[in-house]
Amino acid sequence: MASGRTHDLINLVAFPPIVYYLKPDNFWAFTAGYLAGTFFLSPDNDLYHSHPNKRWKFLRFIWKPYVILFSHRGISHMPIFGILTKLIYLAVVFLVFYFLLSISLHFIYPEGEKFLYKNFHEKSSNLENFIQNPFVISFLVGLFLSEIVHIITDILYSNMKKLKLIR
Question: What residue spans define the domains of the chain?
Fold first, then answer.
């Protein structure tokens, strides 16, 4: 399996040709998604000591349950399913923190909970519009393509190792 630095380098080298041939409508969103996928939401998030997890710094603990739930090179290394599991996982983590914040606010400032709850539900009702936003779509395509490059690198590296072309 290629090292984390190798994955980063290959993903960065693959980026210009991908942009050149795809010509994404929203370049900045696509770039943000691709870089986030390369450096923070890699298929290697299922390894606790991986480079992408270390980049989360003090928030690294968020990935501990993910590592326990998903074995390395399992679903996280499957196109589309890998990024979906990570996005759903992060949404669940966000909702847990939101719930804990809401409960804390209830005890500290009871009126604050109503404000937090009201704003959350107003925003969540626009979820469909959010997902159909061209910026979001470009961001998700960038995430997906960075994952594909990572998976292809793993496949090629493993096959080259089997053929003893590399050590």
Answer: 4-162
